[in-house]
Design goal:
Oligomer: single chain
Strand order of the largest sheet: 3-5-6-8-7
Radius of gyration: 16 Å
Mean pLDDT: 88
Strand content: 5-15%
Number of strands: 9
Largest sheet: 5 strands, mixed
Amino acid sequence: MFDGSDSRKMRSGLWAASIGVVLFGGGAGQAIAGGPPAGFTRLADVAPEIKQDMRYAGADNFTGKPVPGYHAPDCWLKIEAAQALAAAQTDARAHGFSLVVYDCYRPQQAVDAFVRWSRDSDQSTKQNYYPHVDKQRLFARGYIARRSSHSTGLAVDIGVTGWDFGSPFDYFDRRSWTKSRVQQEARTHRNALVALMRRHGFVNYPREWWHFTFGDAEKAPIYDAVID
């Protein structure tokens, strides 16, 4: 879920790039529906074989409810990232497995909703998602960011259909760190996913085995177009 896109800054666990929000609509903070922004594409149009399990469009996520900005369970990405992911899927299929995405482009309003969630008193999802850390500490621990590389359309949260990775998606704990100590099968799966994605230009975020960034997301603009 965390989205520090610059590998040089991953050790800090926070991405603090100062980049503007590209808005679609009237004033600041507003966004309107109307399909992907210019330069984006729907992943289904580029790589229809990749399964989409878009968690933030429903209640199966760490907030326990659909997240603002996700009006449809649809993966949008910058065209170049989608094409690279399509190539990764072709590579995966050649090795006998297939990819599944949990999150792709994320509207800025969704990121803002995560900030509000971190400050409220609701603990209903703690056991399943952050059992060993206070929710208000998730930013400092590097699991949630106020500026998300997902909002640039150049990041993806991804797994492999049927594979065990040693922890679930969005499980905010050291066990989810890519190189944490997990059983051998999970370790093999993590290494294989990282190697696959690296071959196609994606960089893993070390505190989340599922998070990968394509290109220089640190300098890319962020967007707030609603996913419809």
